[in-house]
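SUBJECT: protein chain
CONTENTS: sequence, structure tokens:
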Amino acid sequence: MAIALQDSAVHPVGEPIPPYTDHAISVSLPKWEDNVGYEEGDPRVLDVMQTGYPRFFIHKNITKLASICASKFGTPSESAMLFPTARSAEHCRVFVAARSVPARVTHFAMPGPAPTTIVYAVLFPTSEFGVPKQFWQHTGLGISSRRAEHCLALLAAHSAPKAATKNKHYTVKPPRGVPSALLVPAGSDGEEDTFERDQALFLEERYGRNLSAQAAEEAKRAMKLRIAGVLVRDERGEVEVGVSVRGASVQESDVYLYPTGMSAIWSAHQLALGAIGERKSICFGFPYTDTLKTLQKWGPGCHFLGNGVDSDIDELEKILADEHARDPSTPPTLALFTEFPSNPLLRSANLPRLRQLADKYDFLIVIDDTIGNFVNVEALPYADIMVSSLSKIFSGEANVMGGSLVLNPARKHYAALKTHQDATFENAYFDADAIFMERNSRDFQRRIAEIDANTEALCDLLHAASVQGGDASSPLTRVYYPKYETAANYEACRIKRDRGGRPGGFGGLFSVDFSSRAASAAFFDALPCFKGPSLGTNFTLACPYTIIAHYVELPWAARYGVNDTLVRVSVGMQDREELVRGFEGALAAARAVAAAE
């Protein structure tokens, strides 16, 4: 069910998005000044933050569990960061130790029925919190808020006295299909807590349409089949499997699920390093911030070609030729990472030309298709590895994190990648998260079609009213959208007709730029929609992207066209006419401010 624009426009700063959602992955920053205040540490904003994007804001459930772990295993001057596996915790310890911060790993076995739930903690000096926090943000490997909630519930159940039950017929029973551990957050002991818990659970459950906890593996399998593109029919409990629509002979066994999209990207880089060898990578196009950080901070580093246009491929060819001439016995690079299209400039790389270079110089191509998504584009044939954030449009509900990694069986290094991946992969995706993600994703193709149509209507309207579109007097200078940016490159991979006869769309994300920050702020403040981080939501969501993602490096971002006046919009499923009216009003506000400047 879509959230009406008028219901989202007045959402207070610091409140979760979606509202009343314990595991929301966005947070309301409704005014331009709120985003600046967040980045500058303004208590007016920080003191009311109830949640935030999970890799940037550590959820209160996780903070509480980490505090328990630190008090149990650490010293008074130490804090803990929590991970689902021993290996991920050790990766964090190594990262922290390499930056001259002492750290050690311990584990915390939760009381409760078998199998035992274990959390791994990295203990470090509290004064050095920023260093392990980098690892948490860049890798996305930390525990999820639902895993923390589950652990807190086990601890609470173990420590709480057993109350006598007078009549078993009057005891409270969990809703059918809901993991009982999710129903008892630590510290709940009153009717008000029970009401709030039940209300939150009702909203998450969406009328009980969920799987049982015992069906988590089946949920993961269903998602892998969807991502592999082999499902001919996937509705009302009826499943029919056919040939993959991904453009390669992908099978369920070629798909791997991760706790977050960023952990899939980080793991793709680790997979390449482990299976192929230690060499520099290439970051092609201006990427989401942590992708570049991953390539820079792990392994031998990377070449950064930040514009992502065809002229950058000319520069890349020269780099490759020079490296090959220096040492013809070794491939000049390990892997090229690119987004299709990119975030936030919606540029699409020339994948056929990059593939030719990869085959010539024997390197991998890793493509992030989160924004384009495989309903709209067929990019896998050009990739060795495909990664995606399932937290975005695959879920749509903004209440659960997840990521995927797909190996292309048609590529030269498939056998080496597959062998290494199967030997090292850890099934760290928490069962409850998988259950919610599976439920959310059942209708993702229908939602994408509706969102694509809404987005194209808005972008056509805004493009016509921009300097780029011919209105020289407009404060709106440019609309970044695959229909207008590197259009030929996007068109080369756009699906012409899917199984249902629908052509691929241009996705649900676009960015707009203005002639001044005042005009940008006026436009943003006037938008009648939720404002906060993340994208790919079923409801419209906007943010001043460069302010929120690159505030400490604004001049650097501007070198690649990512200006501090940029507003990024993820379009939802609201009524199209209402969306158009809302964006027309925001543009009018920008025009008024620009006229007064």
Remarks:
- DSSP finds 21 helices and 19 strands in the chain.
- The chain has three domains: 60-155, 214-442, 443-596.
